[in-house]
Automatic annotation (TrEMBL):
<feature type="transmembrane region" description="Helical">
    <location>
        <begin position="67"/>
        <end position="84"/>
    </location>
</feature>
<keyword id="KW-1133">Transmembrane helix</keyword>
<protein>
    <recommendedName>
        <fullName>Inner membrane protein YccF</fullName>
    </recommendedName>
</protein>
<dbReference type="InterPro" id="IPR005185">
    <property type="entry name" value="YccF"/>
</dbReference>
<keyword id="KW-1003">Cell membrane</keyword>
<feature type="transmembrane region" description="Helical">
    <location>
        <begin position="90"/>
        <end position="106"/>
    </location>
</feature>
<keyword id="KW-0812">Transmembrane</keyword>
<feature type="domain" description="Inner membrane component">
    <location>
        <begin position="71"/>
        <end position="121"/>
    </location>
</feature>
<feature type="transmembrane region" description="Helical">
    <location>
        <begin position="6"/>
        <end position="39"/>
    </location>
</feature>
<keyword id="KW-0472">Membrane</keyword>
<feature type="domain" description="Inner membrane component">
    <location>
        <begin position="4"/>
        <end position="54"/>
    </location>
</feature>
<keyword id="KW-0997">Cell inner membrane</keyword>
<dbReference type="InterPro" id="IPR052937">
    <property type="entry name" value="Inner_membrane_protein"/>
</dbReference>
<dbReference type="InterPro" id="IPR031308">
    <property type="entry name" value="UCP028777"/>
</dbReference>
<dbReference type="Pfam" id="PF03733">
    <property type="entry name" value="YccF"/>
</dbReference>
Amino acid sequence: MSLLLNILWLIFGGFFVSMGYIAGGIALCFTIIGIPWGVQCFKLAIFSLFPFGQDTRMAERPASQDLINVILNIIWLIFGGIWIMINHLFWGVVLCITIIGIPFGIQHFKMVKIALWPFGREIYGLRNGERLF
């Protein structure tokens, strides 16, 4: 079922969402200082390409990396993360208004978590629970 939903997702806009994240990641990686944020854009691109059957969770890391992740997430939030989150929140609400769009709206709500706070999050498969990215 998730294969069919992922194909429909790609046809009805998921491909363009992913390409937007890839373009943003490439643009950020052109600047030396933007590489960490570019990598997070690539993480969002992978997650937005096939969101059905995937989810995100906070990675288990040492406390020393938590402070770095918080600082990078705050910079992400100030310079664009809030707008990405609002975009996914908007499309989630719009799609959930229609009955047929509810599964796609739920995927946008899942993307809100990673769009708001991407550093320190990892993508994992729901079926086998292994880390994907």
